[in-house]
Amino acid sequence: MNKVNLAEKLAMIGGHWTPRIVGELNGQHVNLVKFQGEFVWHDHGDEDELFLVLKGGFRMEFRDRSVELTVGAFLIVPKGVEHRPVAIEEVEVMRFEPAAIQYIGEVDSPMTVRNWERI
Amino acid sequence: MNKVNLAEKLAMIGGHWTPRIVGELNGQHVNLVKFQGEFVWHDHGDEDELFLVLKGGFRMEFRDRSVELTVGAFLIVPKGVEHRPVAIEEVEVMRFEPAAIQYIGEVDSPMTVRNWERI
User: Which of A25, A41, A79, B115 has the most CB atoms less than 10 A away?
Assistant: First the structure.
């Protein structure tokens, strides 16, 4: 039951595309991630994912459209829907998702990080 | 898969202590609430709750201590732990919790709102 200051946690995060877990509740994780550039196309068979922008902005691409997100906006990507985050400049994002999720679903990529650090 | 702008949703919320649901994923709800004053002591037998401060600040009281929260900080209250939010001035909070939760557990109070509107 300790409070978590998002700015303090974000200051501890170096690099891109590697979420850090900052909270857990009801089998879900809260994690923070910084990224820039294009991720890989992927989906999650059993998990919905929420992306809340804390700093900057990014575009979530779907196969048939895309959604632009800026600070203070969130998007829920339902299970099974292919998506790809793209950020022109570095963005800071808070995510909610099941603790059991695989970062990029079944896709294998150098961007895959299987074990996320808790900070 | 529509984005949700927190400021737009918050502008739609009048009154205090009545959460509005703004998202659902993995059996969990994202809701927004404004409040001021003292709530009632309560706990939730089966649900952990996350409180993220979007504007202002408040104090989460526990039976043995309290935690002060300001903008950009969150706190997870584990299931079964009695708590009471207290805000000197109006605060805006985003919460993340199981969809099945009862707002104030088993406690009966005029502050109870059983059916939350989606906005």
Answer: A25
The total domain count for chain B is: 1
Tens of pLDDT, residue by residue over A42-53, are 999 889 999 999
- Confirm if B59 and B86 have CB atoms less than 8 A apart: yes
Cα torsion at A76, A81, A87, A91 (round to 10°)? 30
Contacts of A47 in chain B (CB under 8 A): 26
Residue A3 to residue B78, Cβ atoms within 8 A = no
Residue B68 lies in a domain: yes
Q: Judge whether B24 and B116 are in contact, CB under 8 Å.
A: no
Q: Which residues span the domain enclosing B31? A: 6-98
Cβ contact B74–A3 (<8 Å): yes
Max CA separation in chain B (angstroms) = 42
| Contact with chain A for residue B115, Cβ under 8 A | no
Q: Most A CBs within 10 Å: which of B76, B93, B94, B118, as the mutation test of the A interface? A: B76
Q: Indicate whether A111 belongs to any domain.
A: no
Q: Is residue A61 part of a domain?
A: yes
Q: Is pTM beyond 0.80 here? A: yes
What CATH number corresponds to the domain at position A52?
2.60.120.10
Whether residue A118 lies inside any domain: the answer is no
For the stretch B66-90, pLDDT in tens is: 999 999 999 999 999 999 999 999 9
